[in-house]
Amino acid sequence: MNPLAVNYDAASLDASHNRARFGLVIQGPRFTTGNGPNNYACGGFDSLDTVKENINLFGPRVNNIVLSTWSDSGFCRDLLGDNITLIESIKPVGFDYLNQQKQFISIFAGVNFLASNSDCTHVIKIRTDQSVPLEFIDWIEKLFDGENNPNLIVCSDLISNLPFYAGDFVFVGGINKILGFVKSVLRSDRQRVALNNSMDYTLKRLIDIDDEIANLFTSGNPLVNQCKLAYRSDEIMYAWSRAINCYVTPLSKKIFWRIVWRGRPMSQVFDENNNNFIFYEDCRVNGRHLANAPSNVFAAEMSAELIGEIWRYLKEYLKCIVR
Q1: pLDDT of amino acid 3
Q2: Across the strands, what pairs with 31?
Q3: Overall domain count for the chain
Q4: I need a surface site. Which of 91, 162, 250, 309 has the fewest CB within 10 A?
Q5: Given this model, what pLDDT does residue 7 score?
Q6: Domain, as residue range, for 260
Q7: Distance CA 247, CA 236 (A)
Q8: Long-range contacts of range 134-138, CB-CB < 8 Å, 24 or more positions apart?
Q9: Under 8 Å between Cβ of 137 and 126
Q10: For 100-123, what is each residue's pLDDT tens digit?
């Protein structure tokens, strides 16, 4: 099915006036290696036990569970249980920077199945190689039962000095909102808005739904847009702060730090004292302001930092192109 041809009625799917009915999409491969802070060698991390753990945890609390992966994944229906839907999509071919197309096609397959075959109003997307604590489900249910903003999508984390960065470990929202997000990413047909992957997919959605943000990123050159993001002008940071108020919120910090990623708690993968992380308590409770750059971007101490930040993104992007 063509993801861009799917359309759903917002009122029937979000049903924001009723209690949210959640479906779960566990997305990703069975064996994961990674290209970030928690890489795994020796054939990759086998996520089967983690998937089973999440199925057992979510089973009594959600209406439907979908495992969305790719052909020849190594997952077997007999090992997952009778009530689990296994979807194995065909892997996209061609250059796919940091597997963005592959990831979002797989997310679409799972969410689209729930939208077409269940009465779920909301969807939770997690990874095959991460287990979440029980408190996660309690927190999500409470958040959406009391949430009056139907546009809100929960992500895993935000970074104060990286505007439009939204972590993809977790996505939660109304089914049609998640489908709209996924379609915005797939509609680009792998064309980049920004070099940083998390900023790129976030901006693709926000540009589609917010004219003020779209007007800030009119260039078709991802390097130009990445320079704007690195500068962190008042205009950019105000737009990002407004997006956080209207469209996106991160997890609670106590939940994030208890996620287990490839056998390691997040507290062992990242520094809990890193003040750049922004969580729900920061932006929804404490009203924390986002970090900004000095007004004079050409100050000597800032020039090296900006050039270094842009160069890191560009070098990683070019490295993937020439592989």
Answers
A1: 58
A2: 46
A3: 1
A4: 91
A5: 52
A6: 3-322
A7: 16
A8: 134/57, 135/254, 135/255, 135/258, 136/251, 136/255, 136/259, 137/57, 137/58, 137/61, 137/62
A9: no
A10: 999 999 999 999 999 999 999 999
